Recover the amino acids of this structure.
């Protein structure tokens, strides 16, 4: 019914609405940022000496551990930010305004698309902020060409897009903000079971495959490789496959949920 | 079908909706001519909101042939949406942003140009007395202000058919009268209004036609006057304190309906001055001296209680008796 330009216009209207919400009420986003920043400072300044011995630096070397941990925490930041997306989608769905949108001749998906694009922008902004903290405490990219920086940005955008779609689905099935926050918890916990804090080979043998093939590890290893020149191997393909897979899954899941009759 | 649907703003036949094994709407038929106010009246839980939600495309019906604004609801919901405006029972405003931002959001979604959007928003904020509050978040608004903002937002797209789901529930008397004036203003502009309410006074004040919904079925439909004729007409009630006086009056006034328990007699009467004088003359000539005389005229409350106090199965019987 509505042609493409109108659909684009509706989506950008909804995006503006979500950005306005985020700007007016930034506390949720900022609170969620605290987790990765606290973990970064905790693992570097408190556990740093011990942790750095585990990554094969031979002796206590915090600087080396900063380099190791920052890429993982950048991706964890995305996981943490999209929890906020799940919460705000779930909150939004309880508002009467959504019922109004559903009875208007607008592009049906624009409500969701507005949330998704807004969330990706917020994720990237959060990554930049956490990255800035990392740089402030001594993180430096050792060996990244312009192309690798570009690829790193692309990876971050693609990864946040995929987690956002999943988070939107979780928000849609959650009756309230608390449920949404609980449902989206795995997105914060998964990075703890990845190679973000310690290398895979230091984990128990039976656990290594789980850590290796979950969505975060390939993305972390790819980002590490792009920024620090470590071995990427097949992790880039795995990361892309996971991202695309989760995006498609989250998209169809969210679409189906949103198109259902709203609960009374 | 088409020749009738063109003049009818809303036409529904056999509308059904059930949640699990609980039937909410059990095959109802509605016909609302364009440019009129139609009121769906019923107690809480009668299915009024469900009917609005279905006719406004928010949820889907289980069965029924439904037309709104000349468009089939099942096959062309988007055309229906372009013709309607909805103000729900729970305010459909975005509480996190200001009143003005809410209005501009609606303007954008109706694809108005930036300039036109600002003009329409400013005009409606003015008309609904929201200029002062325009820059404040909607979450800080009072119930009446929020309802006004809600309607103002509905009007941004100049819809020809407006659904108002209990627009005055929870409002104070002044806000309620304001809302009535707003609705009258809409009708004067040729808009069709589908109004649900649990206040009979409101339906009486505003509606051209009223349908009474109870237990998922329409138990009566017509103008306010037609509905009032469905219940026993007006009467004059004579009350006695002395059983002896009561009994002698009952003998003298054979036509009167007796109520032994309260020692009262009811004489059918339309309540006009002439009829009252006739009754008084008759009482004088029969030497009846009642302790209390009250005139009772039928109102929609009588209709409402008569039609909705029975379980649904008993309602048609009650109706027949009343029509007698």
């Amino acid at each position: 019914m509505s042609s493409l330009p109108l659909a684009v216009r509706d989506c950008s209207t909804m995006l503006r609405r979500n950005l306005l919400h985020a700007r007016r009420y930034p506390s949720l986003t900022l609170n969620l940022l605290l987790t990765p920043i606290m973990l970064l400072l905790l693992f570097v300044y408190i556990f740093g000496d011990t942790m750095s011995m585990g990554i094969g630096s031979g002796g206590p070397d915090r600087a080396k551990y900063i380099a190791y941990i920052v890429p993982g925490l950048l991706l964890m930041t995305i996981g943490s930010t999209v929890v906020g997306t799940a919460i705000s989608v779930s909150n939004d769905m309880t508002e009467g305004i959504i019922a109004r949108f559903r009875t208007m001749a607008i592009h049906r998906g624009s409500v969701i698309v507005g949330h998704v694009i807004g969330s990706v922008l917020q994720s990237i902004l959060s990554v930049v902020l956490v990255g800035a903290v990392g740089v402030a405490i001594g993180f430096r990219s050792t060996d990244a060409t312009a192309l690798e920086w570009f690829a790193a940005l692309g990876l971050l955008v693609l990864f946040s897009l995929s987690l956002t779609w999943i988070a939107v689905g979780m928000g849609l099935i959650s009756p309230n903000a608390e449920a949404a926050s609980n449902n989206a918890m795995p997105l914060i916990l998964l990075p703890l079971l990845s190679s973000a804090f310690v290398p895979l080979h230091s984990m128990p043998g039976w656990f290594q495959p789980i850590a290796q093939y979950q969505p975060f590890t390939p993305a972390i290893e790819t980002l590490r490789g792009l920024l620090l020149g470590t071995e990427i191997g097949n992790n880039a393909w795995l990361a892309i496959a996971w991202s695309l897979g989760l995006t498609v899954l989250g998209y169809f899941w969210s679409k189906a949920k949103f198109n259902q009759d709203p609960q009374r | 079908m088409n020749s009738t649907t063109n003049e009818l703003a809303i036409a529904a036949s056999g509308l059904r909706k059930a949640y699990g094994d609980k039937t909410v709407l059990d095959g109802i038929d509605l016909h609302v001519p364009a440019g009129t106010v139609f009121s769906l009246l019923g107690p809480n839980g009668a299915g009024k909101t469900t009917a609005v939600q279905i006719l406004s495309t928010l949820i889907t019906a289980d069965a029924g042939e439904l037309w709104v604004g000349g468009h089939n609801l099942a096959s062309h919901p988007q055309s229906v949406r372009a013709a309607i405006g909805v103000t729900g029972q729970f305010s459909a405003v975005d509480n996190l942003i200001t009143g003005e931002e809410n209005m501009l959001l609606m303007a954008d979604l109706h694809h108005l140009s930036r300039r036109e959007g600002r003009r329409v928003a400013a005009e409606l904020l003015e008309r609904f007395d929201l200029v002062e509050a325009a820059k404040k978040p909607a979450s800080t608004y009072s119930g009446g202000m929020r309802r006004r903002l809600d309607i103002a937002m509905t009007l941004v797209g100049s819809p020809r058919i407006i659904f108002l789901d209990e627009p005055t529930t929870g409002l104070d008397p002044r806000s309620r009268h304001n809302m009535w004036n707003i609705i009258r203003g809409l009708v004067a502009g040729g808009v069709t209004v589908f109004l649900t309410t649990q206040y009979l006074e409101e339906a009486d004040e505003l509606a051209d036609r009223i349908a009474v919904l109870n237990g998922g079925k329409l138990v009566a439909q017509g103008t306010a006057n037609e509905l009032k004729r469905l219940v026993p007409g007006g009467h004059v009630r004579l009350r006695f304190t002395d059983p002896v006086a009561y009994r002698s009056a009952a003998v003298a006034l054979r036509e009167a309906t007796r109520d032994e328990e309260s020692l009262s007699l009811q004489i059918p009467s339309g309540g006009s001055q002439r009829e009252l004088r006739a009754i008084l003359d008759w009482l004088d000539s029969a030497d009846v001296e009642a302790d209390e005389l009250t005139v009772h005229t039928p109102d929609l409350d009588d209709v409402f209680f008569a039609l909705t106090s029975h379980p649904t199965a008993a309602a048609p019987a009650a109706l027949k008796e009343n029509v007698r």
About this structure: The CA atoms of residues 50 and 71 of chain B lie 20 Å apart. Residues 1-5, 311-324 of chain B have pLDDT under 50 and may be disordered. The first strand of chain B starts at residue 8 and ends at 19. Chain B is about 40% helix and 25% strand.
